[in-house]
Amino acid sequence: MCGLAGFLRTPTTPDRESHKLWLESMGQAILHRGPDAGATWQDDHIGLAHRRLSILDLSDAGTQPMHSASGRYVIAFNGEIYNYRELKQILQEAGVAFRTQTDTEVLLALFEQKGAACLDDLNGMFAIAIWDRETRKLFLARDRLGKKPLYYYQEGDRFAFGSEIKALMQAPFVKTEVRYDAIRDYFAYQYVPDPKTIYRNIHKLPPGHWLVTDGRQADIRQYWDVSFASAGSQSLEELEQGLYELIDDAVRLRMVSDVPLGAFLSGGVDSSAVVGLMAGHASHPVTTCSIGFDSKRFDEVDWARKVAGLFHTDHHEFTVRENVAGNLTQIARYFDEPFADPSFVPTYFVSQLARQKVTVALAGDGGDENFAGYSKYRTDQIENNLRRRLPSGLRRTLFPQLAQVAGLFSMTSARKARSLLSTLAMEPDDAFFVTNCFFRQSVWDEVVASDLKRETAGYDPAELTRHHYRNADTDDHLSKILYTDIKTYLPGDILVKVDRMSMANSLETRAPLLDYRVVEYAAGIPSALKLKGSEKKFILKDTFSRLLPDDVLYRKKMGFSVPLAQWLGNELRATADAVFNDAESGLAECFDMSAVRRLWQKHLSGDHQYTQELWSMLALELWWQAYGPDSSGGKGL
Q1: Strand-by-strand arrangement of the 37-42 sheet
Q2: 229 CB contacts (<8 Å, ≥6 apart)?
Q3: Who's near 84: CB < 8 A, 6+ residues apart?
Q4: pTM for the full model?
Q5: For the purposes of burial, counting CB atoms within 10 Å of the CB of 111, is it exposed (0-12), middle (13-18) or buried (19 or more)?
Q6: Paired strand residues for 126
Q7: Residue 437 appears among annotated catalytic residues
Q8: Angle at CA 549, nearest 5°, toward 547 and 552?
Q9: 157 vs 243, higher pLDDT
Q10: How far apart are CA 527 and CA 520, in angstroms?
Q11: Mind listing the pLDDT tens digit for each residue in 70-110?
Q12: Of 2, 118, 289, 437, which is the active-site residue?
């Protein structure tokens, strides 16, 4: 696991010595991604920087940037290719000789043979940069699901790229002007969705895409998508047997490592299944790590402890207490963009705990998106069933009026009625956006400042949800929203959180349930076997009933939730007070602070309905302080 960065040189850029300093600064900015080794390489047309976290072949032979045997190609690579041994054997049988035991050299040899088509052969997580010294073109690629990040900057003939935005910022020609529509997206989704970033000329390469550029023009192509079009005719027993064997193989592949390896364990279905399968392949007790909270409502350590005992793991725990406020500002800096999923806090601490014991950790990410594990899917399914039974004309005319009447009352039941009536009046894709939206339109209208409101007038962040919902190759509603989350929430939130927080601690994380074969297999399972009545993840739970006890499989889902309302009212109260009462803050560039303070006072008086909105505003300010116009980061609005 590593970090990469670089830029294309132009006739107007400085001499090599200056470029070397730029490259070294770019590498230093992402030192946490690869503390074991670092190197740079440049010719007359490109500069490459690489930081290495040694996982396979711990010798210096694995140092990057690495040259192909022919000398034509130079690679900087971040990630792991899990099937590299099989690919290496095929290449060796074709006469290719290898100097190292790394997956990097296998990838480079495969690219030399097949070009971009080699991506179809890879099972792994990766961000790839390959320079062709003959054609003088740069090839960039990102893995199918977006587990590894890859950013690029393009303006005129200026082109830079890297694993994190902070690396790009070390190149003096990179300009960082904040874009208004990205701010609107952030408050809707709690992250900035690809291909945007918070900056105008910096972009994310979308998952499952590659890019080729000569520095002036970029050709971007999609090489992978997941299809929900056809459900197989297999029996439930056959489906479950195939699913078990596939996930077991995905776990096996991800246990290849030359350094200590363990797992995150919450005690939920996904991580428990991964740990159970690991125990079946391991020759010694699996190292497991869990995070707990003072609040019993959010604490899962008892369940994790139960599973750890079941599989006789070497188990470790950490409780998040007063460490939140003192660490929040520093932790938030790792995101480079505004990011408001509060579970990044426990993810950071469980990564920190794991890194004390291991260098690689397996995790259960992906189970919810593949098998319908979130409560929102059940809620949305109920609403959509009601929507289909009601005349569309009635829904669109009468329900908005009834919602307005319900809005006149302040009781919780009236607010819920207003929300239900409003979503029933919508089409399914718009309703799912509302389900996913963490900053309600009514609150936005109340607090947004006039400048930001004017600049985002006519912009609708729901279009992103609509686009993916309509792009799914199925008419099944649940499948369409699972596809939408795989394209948005998974790469934009979950995988960003896990990558940044684990790499902040120089820890590699691997997700067997996001093996692309598992994702494709799950997409072919009828949605009625994922959400069966009120039972979420039905087929996954039934599949692992041979491995896990019923009380683990069917307990109430907690996820990686945090006591956010409690944090804001206690541990983070002083931090939030300072932000919400600062008329000169970055937040004040976006919002009417008197309106924000009204929401804050309501929260302090016990009305917690604005918790997520207040948290997302606080998270924006944390980013602003690190990277806004008054920091060493980007330019303001």
Answers
A1: 37-42, 46-52, 2-8, 158-162, 151-155, 202-204
A2: 473, 474
A3: 103, 106, 107, 124
A4: 0.93
A5: buried
A6: 79
A7: no
A8: 110
A9: 243
A10: 13
A11: 999 999 999 999 999 999 999 999 999 999 999 999 999 99
A12: 2
